[in-house]
Write a structure and sequence with these properties.
alpha+beta, Recoverin, domain 1, 3-stranded antiparallel β-sheet, 11 helices, globular
Length: about 240
């Protein structure tokens, strides 16, 4: 058993998004920090493969990941994630597929996660080959939960910028918000404005030159005043945990 200090969203991302084989035994809070006490177990069904039978990450790839400015995991943590990554691959596969992502999210969330996962997968799949290899997996995990505001904002902007043209239009923002609502069943419970209403509010604050698009500069400046546009992407399958 060991103790770690991390942010609340990253903890949930570890537990829910990629289903690592950790069981939290205690959560302590001091001021604004959370301390998690956890023990290692056998994880999900796909993790029942003996960890001793799974190969370790080769030293060259490990060194490349540690040199990546966006990766903040230690060598041991990267190796642990490599074990989990392998145990979640389908038989005969060496990379995660879009289907793998969807299966995880549709298991975790009460709604339909398909649309949201399509966009999340797009951001993880850096080379656009239709798969997420281990390097992309680690970089995506670190970037999407980064404590560096610039890094986190770039990731959030890319999630909204579906066509990758460097600008967010209203249709793209509505699509992402609707995907989040659909995945979390938010609209059905009447807990938020409609996607169109929320999009309108964001554009009123963020689209400073009123050209109908939000540039990264506008997004960055607006997010400093209203962080909800980023927090929306930090979907919570169980707000009571």
């Amino acid at each position: 058993m060991r103790s770690v200090q991390t942010d609340w969203f990253l903890y949930k991302k570890l537990i829910y998004t990629f289903k690592p084989s950790f069981r939290v035994t205690e959560v302590l809070q001091k001021d604004n920090d959370y301390f998690f006490i956890f023990s290692h177990n056998m994880g999900n069904a796909k993790s029942l493969i003996g960890k001793s039978k799974l190969r370790k990450l080769n030293p060259k790839t490990l060194a490349e990941l540690q040199k990546n400015v966006d990766v903040y995991f230690t060598a041991d943590e990267i190796q642990e994630w490599f074990q989990e990554y392998q145990s979640n691959l389908n038989k005969g596969m060496s990379k995660l597929t879009r289907k793998d992502f969807k299966e995880v999210y549709n298991t975790v969330f009460h709604g339909d996660a398909t649309s949201f996962v399509d966009q999340l997968f797009r951001c993880f799949d850096i080379d656009g080959d239709g798969f997420v290899d281990f390097k992309e997996f680690i970089v995506g995990l670190c970037v999407s939960s980064s404590e560096n505001s610039e890094t986190k904002l770039k990731w959030a902007f890319n999630m909204y910028d579906i066509d990758g043209n460097g600008m967010i239009c209203k249709e793209e923002m509505v699509h992402i918000i609707k995907a989040i609502y659909k995945m979390t069943n938010t609209v059905e419970h009447g807990e938020q404005d409609s996607a169109e209403e929320m999009c309108t509010r964001f554009f009123e604050k963020f689209d400073l030159n009123r050209d109908g698009y939000i540039s990264f500069k506008e997004f960055k400046e607006g997010a400093m005043e209203d962080s909800m546009i980023v927090k929306l992407l930090e979907c919570d399958p169980d707000p009571h945990i």
